[in-house]
Design a protein that fits this description.
Among the domains are: 1-107, no CATH class; 215-258, no CATH class. It is built from twelve helices and five strands. The strands form two sheets. It has a three-stranded antiparallel β-sheet. Strands 4-5 form a two-stranded antiparallel ribbon. The protein is an alpha+beta fold and 263 residues long. Helix 5 packs antiparallel against helix 6 (97-105). It is elongated. Strand 1 and strand 2 (170-184) form a beta hairpin. It binds zinc ion (ZN) (2 copies).
Length: 263
């Protein structure tokens, strides 16, 4: 082990020890749970939650760089789609900017590429097609290079506004927002006419946008509505709409196209 590695493992040990003290003061039960996990080298969502809350970046780095946690796994907190989103929220809430940048960097283009490669390997190793069955892989072709950006990756940047603060003697962050611009990772050109929201929507096209049920499982109900025609004095003008059979919310235009449902 070289001296640099030595330093970082010393740093990690220090951080774990300090965090352990913080948690002991917060609640001895919490401390027992935390100590048990860390002793077993378990760095899960709960451990990282407190590491971020008390701003110990080295713990977060250790867990992520050694793949001790899958950031894309579902969060135990149902308000977030995955662990990564939950941790990013905690970092923002606690203004742990270093950790926030680190978490966001680990969701950059390279990682999208890596995830996709992993996914591809998974797909090709599960040689039973039946297994893949109805699994939907979203598709959006880049206008410029014709690659499916869900495979080759896409990049969205965040713009952060700083102002100088006399109080802190340094620039401080006043706002941050995602830019609307989506860039293809393969050809590095801008993708017009697509937003991050609509890309997310494409990913869940099989799912009801309201209750999240898989429509190929719960089914789609079609409804016909007749309206009364005053001139003819009778009901006519049938209009049709399509709904999630579970929660009855209307399926989107894109979903209709995707499932090939013609009016
Ligand atoms: Zn491209
Ligand atoms: Zn639904």
């Amino acid at each position: 082990m070289n001296s640099k590695e030595n330093n970082s493992s010393k740093n990690l040990e220090d951080s774990i020890e300090k965090l352990s003290k913080n948690l002991y003061l917060e609640s001895p039960d919490l401390w027992i749970e935390f100590s048990g996990k860390v002793n077993d080298n378990i760095f899960d969502e709960m451990v990282l939650f407190f590491a971020i809350k008390y701003n110990y970046k080295s713990i977060v780095e250790h867990a992520i760089s050694n793949n001790l946690i899958d950031l894309n796994a579902p969060s135990r907190n149902n308000d977030y789609p995955n662990i990564k989103e939950h941790l990013i929220f905690i970092a923002k809430q606690n203004k742990s900017l270093d950790i926030l940048n680190y978490l966001e960097a680990s969701s950059s283009c390279n990682n999208i590429d890596k995830d996709t490669i992993v996914k591809k390997i998974d797909d090709s190793t599960s040689n039973s097609n039946a297994n893949k069955g109805n699994k939907y892989f979203p598709r959006y072709l880049c206008d410029h290079c014709n690659h499916n950006i869900f495979e080759s990756g896409y990049r969205v940047s965040e713009s952060i506004e700083y102002k100088y603060s006399l109080e802190n003697d340094k620039p401080i962050e006043v706002s941050r927002k995602l830019s609307n611009l989506v860039v293809c990772c393969n050809c590095n050109k801008d993708l017009k006419d697509i937003s991050i929201e609509s890309l997310n929507e494409l990913c869940s096209i099989q799912n009801c946008t309201n209750c999240g049920s898989n429509l190929t499982v719960v089914g789609i109900t079609d409804k016909s509505k007749m309206s009364f025609d005053n001139n003819l004095g009778k009901f006519s003008n049938i209009s049709k709409s399509y709904h999630c059979s579970k929660c009855d919310s209307k399926i989107s235009e894109k979903q209709r196209e995707f499932f090939n449902i013609v009016r």
